Amino acid sequence: MSLSDPIADMLTRIRNAVRIDAEQVNVKASSICAGIAAVLKLEGYIEDFDRIDDGKQGVLRITLKYDNQGRSVIDEIKRMSKPGRRTYSSVDDLPYVLNGMGTAIVSTSKGVMSDKSCRREKVGGEILCTVC
After folding, report:
1. What span, in angstroms and rounded, lies between the C-alpha atoms of 16 and 122?
2. CB 125, CB 107: distance < 8 Å
3. Which of 22, 25, 26, 47 is the most buried (most CB within 10 A)?
């Protein structure tokens, strides 16, 4: 099976796993997906992620995070830039997700970063997704 948008596949798998209160979710590994998972971990939206070698492409096993009442930390995860319509932004025009309470994940020339890191480093790029 050919996968044309691995980022959308990753976000959909996370969204579906959150809906059924799954503890972990497996995603096909790629460097961009690993970068997104690293930002999600850094921002506190997931517990951890591991890369598992399966002899082919590999798998990212993402451990989801829940609060004390059993509700998921991820309320909404939404794809912004799509293969048919890319969304780029300068550092001055980066969106504030929920007035700064959420996070925009941006692919920059310095790697995949959160919007807060982009503002600190003064770099813009392609807005991959938003999380709140």
Report:
1. 34
2. yes
3. 25
